[in-house]
Amino acid sequence: xEFHRHDVVIVGAGLAGLFAGLYTSREFDTAVVSKVYPIRSxxxxxxxxxxxxxxxxxEDRWEWHMYDTVRGSDYLGDQDAQEIVCREAPLVIYECExxxxxxxxxxxxxxxxxxxxGHFSDFGKGPQKRACHAADRxxxxxxHTLYETCVKQDVRFYSEFFTLQLIFAxxxxxxxxxxxxxxxxxxxxxxxxxxxxxxxxxxxxxxVTSNSHANTGDGLSLVLRSGLPLEDMxxxxxxxxxxxxxxxxxTEGARGEGGxxxxxxxxxxxxxxxxQKMELAPRDVVSRSIQTxxxxxxxxxxxxxxxxxxxxxxxxxxxxxxxxxxxxALKFTGVDxxxxxxxxxxxxxxxxxxxxxxxxxxxxxxxAGDIVEGLFAAGECACVSTHGANRLGTNSTxxxxxxxxxxxxxxxxxxxxxxxxxDLPQDAADQSIExxxxxxxxxxxxxxxxxxxxxxxxxxxxxxxxRREETMKECLAKIKExxxxxxxxxxxxxxxVFNTELMEAIELGSMLDFVxxxxxxxxxxxxxxxxxxxKDYPKRDDQNWLKHTLAWKEGDSIRLDFKPVVITRFQPxxxxx
Length: 577
Ligand SMILES: Cc1cc2nc3c(=O)[nH]c(=O)nc-3n(C[C@H](O)[C@H](O)[C@H](O)COP(=O)(O)OP(=O)(O)OC[C@H]3O[C@@H](n4cnc5c(N)ncnc54)[C@H](O)[C@@H]3O)c2cc1C
Hints:
Bound molecules: flavin-adenine dinucleotide
Largest sheet: 8 strands, mixed
Oligomer: single chain
Number of helices: 17
Helix content: 25-40%
């Protein structure tokens, strides 16, 4: 076993983790631990853009952005966090620009902006161009620029290290992590004054998903296993346009640039569901519309997909603004979108819930807002509740930048107070050693790959866009059964060097942990709000459910608690698009 000591340990090298590292490394010794090579983090897949009310193409204001975000969130977002994200958006975009992010430009040389679903001008009235982008490779260029800057600032990267456990001191403060070195094998203990979780999304628990293989929610599992809660887990976003059948993403930028949706009768069916905003209504609305068309037999040829047509944009526009979409459609469906419409279906995409934090990114341990000293969280794994019940496109890379930066500043402040760093207990890594050795020696008859496949299919079938009590209960029973089967898995590969079977088995353990609060929270929430749509309770119920869910793992079950939503500027009203 090897020991390391740093002032800050950041778990996750996506936009959130790197933005934080950029700040802490200015004054303190900073390490970033990542299970994939940093620039392979999922942020690199973000295509469409990063929202900010720069007003480069038309008048815009942060208040309009905030109104859209609040309404998009179906009033479940905390408005203090939503105000921060919209107010600080221009600041982080200009910071990215000055670091060297090569945004697309207008003819006058300003950062180019394009329309995205749910973003409007003048408090929801007119169209808006708010998404700053670099063609359709926005996350890729942001991630590379941040990584290079962190390298320049001597951030120490531990790439391909899998974090297995958080370490707490006797007073409950977080003081480090334990990680497995995937490349060489072997356990490592990282001792630190501050730990940031920036472990990203977790839609890999679904079969049809836009997420990368690494998005298995390990950070959430670390928190649950430490006796801490998760917030609003029932809210999982289905992006309207995943490639059929895999779910690989076609950016909303394609609709922003003018692409539209067609059913089997060649109808632009969004006229029925969102007559004013059409394809640029928020994602929950468009996804439900597509699924309804499919369920009612108007999918193409009666099948499980509809068409996204961009042909009318012309070759020059497609190759300039959507080159990656052209390439992805060609490679993964064999469709040349210059000549044919793209087959698409909704795909599990983004998780609004996660590790509860305050606006300073400190992790919360209860509904009273008490914090866990030394532990911070930011990015998709966190729930500061910018997105409430439904996220607007381009607000996520933005949140990662705004709250990643805030996490850096928060940790700087904390470290300047020079928190004590007691010696770690000798047995700090025992639990992780037992887990990995147990798996390496496992001789059980169950296959992790098979359990994962059943879990993903079950989540897609029973925890999709439309939910019902009965099917959710079936889903929960299946999860319980799979958790039991997981205890009896056996690995074929007993090697220690780059044992991907071992890694996937641990990731499956993470998924089996965090899917339970998703289903339990969804069964409890007897209303429809944003991405959580129940056929048996189709109306939003502000009287009883204008509140956040907190979920703890206690023994074999999940305990729920609730906390109020922060409302400052905008009172809840009916959403119409
Ligand atoms: C296909 C796609 C397109 C998108 N397009 C957009 C867009 O255009 N605009 C927008 O705003 N949003 C977009 N999003 C959402 C957005 O990209 C993500 O929410 C955001 O990038 C997440 O960043 P992050 O820093 O939180 O995590 P990630 O970038 O996912 O990084 C997570 C990091 O955590 C590390 N990690 C995880 N578990 C462990 C562990 N156990 N041990 C060590 N390290 C670990 C990983 O190695 C990785 O470095 C898109 C999402 C998808 C899936």
